[in-house]
Input
Amino acid sequence: MIVITAPTGQIGSRLLDILLNEAPTHGEELRVIVRDPGKLPAAVRARVDVVTGSHGDAAVVDRAFTGADAVFWLVPSNLQAPSLDSVYSGFTRAAAGAFKTHGVGHVVGVSALGRGTPAAARAGQVTASLAMDDLIASTGVAYRALANPTFMDNLLRQVAPIRDQGVFTDTVTADRTAPVAATRDIAAAAAGLLLDRSWSGAGEVPVLGPEDLSANDMARILTEVLGRPVRYERQSLGDFRAALTGYGIGNAIVDGYVDMMRAKDDGLDGGVRRTPRTASPTTFRAWCEEVLKPAVLA
Output
């Protein structure tokens, strides 16, 4: 039995699609934890065991982890949380206890790059995510943290300015190169680990994409794919903070985002060497052709 948390989210929904296709050939049953089962297609609900509720709730994870062999763990965003610890480790503590109570053998979690880099000491959400990984590993469960860089898919939030003004923004230096990954590759990495549980102990699995890119590189590729000029504009951390605050996001979360983006510009994502094992397949150009361009043209 594989339990999937956040099955309607960007990564979890892709993972669920993969497992629905592949799990039967591995003799695996699937269970999902979801707040609103109505967000799952009826055809999906018919093929999985559904536990309704929040996976931060002790009673919910107690039901969901009964008889479970493996768990996919992803914490949801909480833009009004009083602290980053409450978003990550605080949300995970009930599940960590349930892993031990129910003898869950393997857990795969969504985390971040940065462990071992100087920038990770004050990197907001990344620092909190790494602490969550340590909490899960301390239970003795076999654990793999998917160590991810910035998602290509984050650009979908900027479809309107890309389409209407030919511009996208970020806070990083324009020519600083770093890995970027597609969420579909993160889901595929999770599926591989959940279906082949021959691994043990605790560790990280970096998902780095096939190449490092700068914001200027991304602007060039966007221009070529969309057939129209697209440029990058660097946003100051002060303006970034003001924009997040204007959206009504809580102070603790805003502080974390600002610290994380500062750390990324200080090399947070550059501490892992790309190898055939860590290089995920989707190029930024392919992602733009297959995902971003249709969204821009819609």
